[in-house]
Description:
Layout: H1 6-14, E1 25-27, H2 28-35, H3 39-48, E2 54-56, E3 59-63, H4 64-74
Antiparallel strand pairs: 1-3, 2-3
Amino acid sequence: xxxxxxxxxxxxxxxxxxxxxxxxxxxxxxxxxxxxxxxxxxxxxxxxxxxxxxxxxxxxxxxxxxxxxxxxxxxxxxxxx
Length: 81
């Protein structure tokens, strides 16, 4: 494959080292729907680097697995006394 550089590795790492043709990518609107947040919140997560994404033209695509990992890592449990 002719793609070299950090973005390719970043997406591959976020996708669990699966081949790109097996990775399901979501639009910003789809990510917002899954996370139950606004599209602006998703854009902020992408631009801050908290949520990996690739740019396709003027839009972003986020690996579905990255959304699930972000949510899993962000889960806040409530401790009982």
